[in-house]
Every structure is written in structure tokens, then in C-alpha cells.
Write a structure and sequence with these properties.
The protein is mostly beta strands. It is about 5% helix and about 50% strand. It has 1 helix and 28 strands. A 10-stranded parallel beta sheet has the order 2-1-4-7-10-14-17-20-23-26. Strands 3, 6, 9, 12, 13, 16, 19, 22, 25 and 28 form a 10-stranded parallel beta sheet that branches. The chain has an 8-stranded parallel beta sheet with strand order 5-8-11-15-18-21-24-27. The longest helix has 8 residues, at about 20-30. It is globular and about 55 Å long.
């Protein structure tokens, strides 16, 4: 098994299991990319944990990439008083969060990506969240610890002209409920011309499986980029297999961007929906772009 890695705030000497934010920041400021990977022998599951108060602010150098590769979960554990902030004010900072890198050979333990009280501003760089050997085409997969594959809670992402891609598949649990591919709670994704693409599949279980679940004032907004949300519910023995659920949340383009929602329900007893939108503050809108909803 690989060793767990913790990214801590401030300065310190890096070890096989402890990495410090100031060291990452210093390297990025030279225009050099940084990759943190759980590898080598150990008794752990191969999780990467980013602690509260971590501040990585790229202020120099050319375009660079911050990439986290974990054998299982990637966890940003900020809180209301201890947020995590990753940003660039000097050229692009691409950010890749790649869980479950040994997907297919790990016995199916999965690997989720959780952002809690985390703010990411890439200054035109891309944000990619996914799993396996290629997170642009393979999904993060919920684990026995975190059933939802990708969860953003009280978190913000801004990429400007950069693209946002998130992919997730919920954990399969025969007795489980609330098995989501991607969940956003009081969170926001924002671009100017960058595309936003979310692809989620719910896990198979007892009830309430959804590919995408947006709630509590979540917003997904682009001016001129293409916004494409695709959700597929899991097979459930009870009710509520839903492609995507939008509850008191908004998905919009404000310029020339097109907006496409595709939701597919799977097997369930009743109340199975492709796209379910509810709440007085929910909004699906475009200004000069095309709008398509299929479900």
C-alpha cells in the first residue's frame, strides 16, 4: 500500500508523508510545475489531505501546473475560519486533482475528491477533476469512506478563459442512499470563455442515486463558454434514480455560451427522473446562446 500525504500550511521540511504549501508555492513561482503523488510502500490507503489555512498563491513565473495524484481520496479539509486558497496572479495555474490513480488494479476501493471551504482561481488555467490513468476521460469513483465521487461544499472555482472538467461515479452500496457522482452544496463554478463540463453517474444502491446534485444556492456560470452537464442515475431497489437534481441553484450562460443539460434515470420503483429542477430560486438560462434540456 502507498503512504498517505498531508499538505500543510506554511513552511517546513518536506518528507515522504508531509509537504508544505510554501515549498509548492516557491516552485510554482519559477514557472515549474509541481506533482504530489502517493507512491511507494506503506501501510496507508494512499490519500492526499490538504489542511485548512493552506495558501498557495502563484505570483511569478510562466504557466505551471499543480497536480495531485492519489491512490484513493483527495481531501481539501478547510473550514469556515480556515479556508484553503489556491490562486495565480502570474500566468496560468492549471490544477489537476486525480484520485484513484490505480483504478482497475486496486480491488475497487475507489477514490473520491472532496473540496470543503476551498477557493481556486487559476488565472486562465484549466481545472480537471477525475480519476484513473487519465482524469480527462475517467471518473473519480466514490469510496467506502466518501460515497460521493466529487463533492464541493462552500467552495469556489474561477478559471476565466480556462476550462473546468469534473467527472465522478458514486460508490455502489446495496443498502446505501444518496449515492451521487458529483455534489455541489453552496458552491460556484465561474468562467468567462472557458467551457464547463460536468459528467456524473450515481452509484447503485437502495435509493436516491443521482449523477449530478446541485443544492443550496450553488451556481454554475459562464459568459461565452459552453456549459455541458450530463448526469446518469444509478440502479436503485427503491425510489429516486435521477440523472441530475437542481435544487435552489442556478446554471446559466450570460453571453454567447450554449447550455446543454442531459439527464438519464435508470432502474427504480418510482420517482425516477432525467432532469429534476425544484425550488423558487432555481434558474436555467442563457442570453445569446442555445439552451437544450434532455431528460
Amino acid at each position: 500500500d502507498p503512504t498517505d500525504i498531508t499538505i500543510n500550511a506554511g513552511a517546513g521540511a518536506d518528507t515522504a508523508s508531509q509537504v508544505y504549501a510554501n515549498n509548492i508555492q516557491s516552485t510554482l513561482n519559477t514557472g515549474t510545475s509541481v506533482t504530489v503523488t502517493t507512491s511507494g510502500a506503506g501501510a496507508d490507503q494512499g490519500d492526499i489531505t490538504v489542511n485548512g489555512n493552506v495558501n498557495i498563491n502563484k505570483t511569478g513565473g510562466g504557466d505551471a501546473t499543480l497536480r495531485l495524484n492519489a491512490n484513493r481520496d483527495i481531501r481539501f479539509v478547510g473550514s469556515a475560519g480556515n479556508t484553503i486558497d489556491i490562486a495565480s496572479s502570474s500566468n496560468k495555474l492549471n490544477v489537476t486533482l486525480n484520485s484513484d490513480i490505480d483504478q482497475g488494479s486496486d480491488g475497487g476501493i475507489g477514490g473520491a475528491v472532496y473540496l470543503n471551504y476551498t477557493n481556486i482561481n487559476t488565472n486562465g488555467g484549466d481545472l480537471i477533476i477525475g480519476g484513473g490513468a487519465d482524469p480527462t476521460t475517467q471518473n473519480a469513483i466514490g469510496s467506502s469512506v466518501f460515497h460521493d465521487a466529487v463533492r464541493l461544499n462552500n467552495s469556489t472555482v474561477q478559471t476565466g478563459a480556462g476550462n473546468i472538467s469534473m467527472r465522478g461515479t458514486g460508490f455502489d452500496d446495496a443498502a446505501g442512499t444518496g449515492l451521487y457522482g458529483i455534489v455541489m452544496t453552496s458552491a460556484s463554478l465561474t468562467t468567462t470563455s472557458g467551457n464547463i463540463t460536468l459528467t456524473g453517474s450515481g452509484g447503485d444502491g437502495a435509493s436516491s442515486s443521482a449523477g449530478l446534485h446541485l443544492e443550496s444556492g450553488t451556481t454554475i456560470t459562464s459568459a461565452d463558454g459552453q456549459v455541458t452537464l450530463t448526469g446518469t442515475g444509478g440502479n436503485v431497489t427503491g425510489n429516486h434514480s435521477t440523472g441530475m437534481t437542481i435544487l435552489d441553484s442556478a446554471v446559466r450562460t450570460t453571453g454567447m455560451g450554449d447550455l446543454t443539460l442531459v439527464g438519464n434515470a435508470r432502474d427504480g420503483v418510482e420517482s425516477n427522473r432525467g432532469v429534476y429542477i425544484s425550488g423558487a430560486t432555481s434558474e436555467i438560462s442563457t442570453v445569446n446562446g442555445d439552451l437544450s434540456v434532455t431528460g
